[in-house]
Write the structure tokens for this entry.
Amino acid sequence: MTPQPVYRMMTSLTLRARTLAVAVTMATALAAGSTLAHAQLETVEPVGEVSLVLGNAYIEHADGRRSAAVPGSIIVASDRIHTAASGHVHIRFVDQALVSVRPDSRLEIVRYDYNPDQPASSSIKLNLEEGVTRSISGHGATAARERFRLNTPIAAIGVRGTDFVVNASSVAVRAQVNEGTIVMAPFSADCTADAFGPCLANAVELTGTSMQMLELDGSTTAPQIMPATVEREPGMMREEVSQAIAASEANADDKTAGTEVYLENVTSQRVKQEVANVAKPTTPTTPPVTPPVTPPTVADTNFTPAVAIATEQLKQNNLIWGRYGSGKGDLERITAPFELAQEGRDWMVGLGEYRLFRDSNGRDRVDAGLGPVSFELSSAQAYYNSGTGIVAMAVTGGKFDIDFNTRQFSTELNMKHSLTGSVDFVANGLISETGIFHNRTGPEPATMAGAVSLDGKEASYFFEQQLQTGGIHGLTLWNKR
């Protein structure tokens, strides 16, 4: 969302005032004969300001000093932002670019040269040493795309004016695009870390409309386009989420603030592990430990019959959910073992221990001329996780509509449990030409993604939503009315 002019003026005045304060302080030191202060006076110029901090984070300066990251902290080129396992930092730069630094991350502001009178001459370079960051391009990157670069330990990323999320470690990089286009390439003799702009050698482009991700690790010579994956951690920093919601009300123009702290779903505690051990559909890994399961009561059974749908019946569907291991045991209603679900099918989207597969018959585009389609709920499994255990929720109904002409969808899922009362999951968003969709809006901290069959007769998605206490998540299957 474009900031209001008044806010821009206030931000600009704040930065100028702080620049003046820095200069006055240094001038005083100069009067005392400080050579170091003289050098700093010539080079220090604010390039951004911290707009939101959650949890623990600090700024490491070029001279080795560390200072706590707090709202209003001035950022200069050569600063490094460090976040702890519970830390988030949001930065607004002088060209109105927005950057969020996620938990367990280190981001260096290598260079940030921006002249509002000549934005096309800008030079911007960031270095994500470890962890996760989201970048929303400002005037500098938009006007000087060939002079913007985000480096990671093993790859360079350039932009075409965009909003993207990068998850990086020393051995692997993942990137997803919310809007626009990025270009990723591995470092080589033709793509060096000290250069600017996108590289051309072994480069791969990814657009936001593809709803996929780029992945590079030691086993490949070029980035690979993979199905988008959302890693689930329902209990992630509930207190911080509440703070973020309150902060978003006070900073409505900050796109990286507020509930999106939770919505990005590139989680904190597993950043290093998940990037270093990228899960491939052909090499299933052990799922995270699931909290103790509490058997559902008769009043809280799922929308589907008490008896789980047989695997052979599921395999007749075009879309089928595969699970690693036993999943949630007796509470599984509409999933099949991973090995059976992936047989003859393509991996579309994933959530934690689940993967959605589709029989695409060698094609990758939804049939033309489908127009508006309404779906009815075929089956579902939904759970409430209070942090102490998981119970099944009753799914009482829902609706799902897709307009293939405008590539938009909307859905509502109705659930209830004695511990939560009635809960409605509501979402809408865009669907790609490959039939993959995910939400763009929602009234709560929530996320969902799924796919349709290429003939438009079946649809399926996973969902999760944070409640005031605990959270809900689950899987759905839909048939065309």
Q: What stands out?
A: The CA atoms of residues 448 and 463 lie 4 Å apart. Residues 1-42, 231-307 have pLDDT under 50 and may be disordered. The first strand starts at residue 46 and ends at 54.
